[in-house]
Structures are given as structure tokens and as C-alpha cells.
Amino acid sequence: LLLGAQTALEAEDMRLRALLVPPEIERTVCLLEDASKTEYGQLYHRQLMTQRRLALPEEAPLSAAEQTRLDLLEDALPVETLAAQRCSAQEAADARHEQRPGLLAMLMEKFSCGGPSQDEVGIEDLRDAAQFEAVEVPQNLNAEIVIGEVALHLVDDAQTEQEKRQALSLHLHKTQLSADVASGVDH
Questions:
Q1: Spatial separation of the C-alpha atoms in residues 146 and 149, rounded to whole Å
Q2: Which residue in 24, 67, 94, 109 is a FRET match for 125, CA 20 to 30 A apart?
Q3: Calpha distance 73→33 (Å, rounded)
């Protein structure tokens, strides 16, 4: 009796669904949903890369029309779809971030002369004390690191209003670290 009722209800559900949305239109809607999901993923990926300053030169920031489309898709697509696409974009951003060299490595590369010079002498190359004594130690050293502008923005993406999203904003307009070392004879 229960199986018969369940079968009858399923048949009636399919009949009513066909009246509301014809099967060919339902297939088109499913295809459009897949295309919209892919479009949202691409737009969100570009937005995230731009926000985290990880965008490649060929990844332009979103235009106003693309931002409007992204907002529309966020309103139209299911939450599960949005979460999956955001998670995928976040993983891609984290992977790209890990591939980039750190701040210290970038500074060392910028201030170095490109690579090891031919004049450098390693410890393994020093065979006797005479060669070691021939190496001159610099008497004075001046190191300076100047960073033009440093900005840190902490955004709460759970908030919907733009004013409430900004949790922390820190701007340092000029950051400088310098050290002067002068060696001398201590009596």
C-alpha cells in the first residue's frame, strides 16, 4: 500500500513538474547553471587575485560590468556552489602565494648584484693561512632598506555592507631600516 502511494506521488510530481518546466527547458537551465557556475568561478578568481596582489599581468582587475555580473551571480547561485568556487579560488591563490619568493628573498635579490661574483672566495678555496690573510674585511658597512608604502587590509567577507567589511586598515607611507657599522681597533 505504501509503495503504491509513493509511486503514485512520484508520478504525479513528475507530471506537475513537466507542466511547470518542460524537460527541454529544464536541461537548458541546468546547462546555464553550469555555465554560470564556471563564470562565477573565473570572476571570483580574478577578483581574489587582484585583492591579494597576486594577479598576473594578463589578469586584469574586474571592470564595473564584470563586478556587477559577479554580484548578480552571488545573488542567483546556490550557497553551496558559491562556497565550492570560493574554496577553489582560495586554494589557487594560496598556491600562487607560496610560489612567490618571500620579502627577504625579494629584497636580497634587489640589492644584490645578480649572483655570486667571481671575486668571492669560499672557505673551501682557502688552502693555507697566506690566502686567508689576503682577504680584506670591510672596515665600514652601511645597510639601508627603504620601503615606499606598506598597506595591510583585513576584510571580513561575512559582512555584506562595504563599510562593515573593513575590519582593519593599516598604511605605512615610509618604512626605513638602516644600520651603520664601523669597525676599529679596541685597545
A1: 9
A2: 109
A3: 10
Under 8 Å between Cβ of 79 and 46: no
pLDDT band, very low/low/confident/very high, at 139 (cuts 50, 70, 90) = low
> Beta-carbon neighbour count of residue 178 at 10 Å?
9
DSSP string, 16-84: HHHHHS-HHHHHHHHHHHHHHHHHHHHHHHHHHHHHTT---TTSPPPPHHHHHHHHHHHHHS-HHHHHH
The more confident residue out of 15 and 8 is 8
Nearest of 87, 110, 101, 107 to residue 54 by alpha carbon: 101
Give first-to-last CA distance, the chain, whole Å: 107
pTM of the model: 0.45
pLDDT in tens, 39-90: 999 999 999 999 988 888 888 899 999 998 888 888 877 888 889 999 999 9
> Which residue's C-alpha cell is 552571488?
74
Cα-atom radius of gyration of the chain, to the nearest Å? 31
The continuous run of DSSP H or E covering 116 comes out as none
**Cα gap 140→120, rounded to integer Å:** 18
